[in-house]
Design brief:
243 residues, globular, seven-stranded parallel β-sheet, binds nicotinamide-adenine-dinucleotide, alpha/beta, 25% strand
Length: 243
């Protein structure tokens, strides 16, 4: 084991995102994958040889880790935060549908450990949030609407990404947009932010066609977060600060 490298735990490993993370972690030699956790702990073909897959009931038994990357469900949230605190590890989470209380708990946890939660780990959406803020500030009187489309298995609506884009609209012009959500087929994720004024319309749109982009973004965040001090970190700021 190379102790110089941040030790990585993947949480939610049997899901669509977890399997992508297990596969793509091999692209990041800066990280050392030490364990994975899923609800049942069944063996996973994507887990490299020698990397244990533990059931969530045995979360307390995972080997020491420096950073957890989590894409699971809100009900898994409290035990994972507790495990990170116990190990003195950083948390990168993309789990959406967290309650206001759970988001507040992330703030509290960030007093003791580095925390980065993002509703979207794509580079394009990080840039889109900046553009939406600018457009909203320039067009305060126009109607603002966000239309999001996702695959039929997605549980929360509006999507966490739509809500984070809505927060940028509110920051720019002082009022929330309207939301519309579509659940159809195998759509990875599409977000349209529309500003409509008299006789004209501005549309900003992002289309994700491969969920590997979110896994790669989260692994990039893990590399950049490991070794930082306690605090709440923003994916866009961490990513775009150094290009
Ligand atoms: P999925 O349903 O395929 O997988 C969910 C995973 O959570 C599984 O591994 C399951 O074993 C695990 N899980 C469920 N309950 C658990 C519990 N109580 N304890 C521990 N683990 C538990 O979902 P998915 O498509 O992989 O998405 C996972 C999450 O990531 C969702 O919230 C989704 O909205 C979000 N997501 C975020 C981004 C982003 O960029 N932030 C991108 C894609 C998906």
């Amino acid at each position: 084991m190379d102790q110089a490298k941040p030790r990585l735990l993947i949480h939610g490993a049997s899901g669509r995102m977890g399997r992508a993370l297990l596969r793509l972690a091999a692209e990041r030699p800066e990280l050392q994958l030490v364990a994975a956790v899923s609800r049942s702990g069944e063996p996973l073909a994507e887990a490299p040889d020698g990397v244990p897959v533990l059931p969530v009931a045995r979360l307390a038994e995972v080997p020491d880790f420096d950073v957890a990357v989590d894409f699971s469900l809100p009900e898994a949230f409290e035990p994972l935060v507790a495990a990170c605190r116990a190990k003195g590890a950083a948390l990168v989470s993309g789990t959406t549908g967290l309650s206001p209380g759970q988001l507040e708990a992330l703030d509290e946890a960030s007093e003791l450990m580095p925390v980065l939660w993002s509703a979207n780990f794509s580079v394009g959406v990080a840039v889109l949030r900046v553009l939406v803020h600018q457009a909203a500030a320039a067009l305060p009187a126009w109607d603002a609407d966000i239309v999001e489309s996702h695959h039929v298995h997605k549980k929360d609506a509006p999507s966490g990404t739509a809500l984070s884009l809505g927060a940028m609209v509110a920051l720019g012009r002082g009022s929330q947009p309207h939301y519309a959500s579509l659940r159809c087929g195998d759509v990875v994720g599409e977000h349209l932010v529309q500003f409509a004024g008299p006789g004209e319309r501005l549309e900003l749109v992002h289309r994700a066609t491969d969920r590997d982009i979110f896994a790669r973004g989260a692994l990039e965040a893990a590399v950049r977060l490991a070794g930082k001090g306690p605090g709440r970190y923003d994916f866009g700021e961490l990513l775009l600060a150094s290009g």
